[in-house]
Amino acid sequence: MREIKFRAWDKNTKVMIDFGSLKDFGYWIHKWYRPKRYILVQHTGLKDKNGKEIYEGDIISNSMGKYPIYYNEEHCQFKAKGYRVNSQDIPWDFTEEPYLIEIIGNIHENPELAE
After folding, report:
1. Facing residues of 47 across strands?
2. pLDDT tier at 97, thresholds 50, 70, 90
3. Where are the alpha helices (DSSP H) in the chain?
4. CA–CA separation, 98 vs 81, rounded Å?
5. Any idea where the domains of the chain sit in the sequence?
């Protein structure tokens, strides 16, 4: 079972806020969260080849290219945007090749990498 974690991008200060626990996150949501200021991103439950946790909005890289991670609500799964087969974004089974994937940034701090 994957650990449920979140972090938040602060649009005003341009800083990513990491939470130590779900309890800390719950307190922050209750006291401080403002939707117009923060963008919440969810942990995928996976890590890259360096052991770094992969979150929604991270940009991962492998030998085939670089791909932003997003959550597809229709299929309730994380996908790598641009990872395509037959002109369709497909789910990428990260668990099959974690040793090949590396986080190179995220769409908030490094939007140029997503192009």
Report:
1. 53
2. low
3. 22-31
4. 17
5. 6-114
Cα–Cα distance between 62 and 49 in angstroms, integer?
Answer: 10
For strands 84-85 and 88-89, give the pairing. Answer: antiparallel
The string of pLDDT tens digits covering residues 45-56 is 888 889 999 999
Class level of CATH domain 6-114: mainly beta
Centroid of chain to Cα 35: 18
Strands (E), the chain: 6-10, 15-18, 38-47, 53-55, 58-62, 65-72, 77-80, 84-85, 88-89, 102-106
Q: Which of 12, 3, 90, 13 is nearest to 54 (CA)?
A: 3
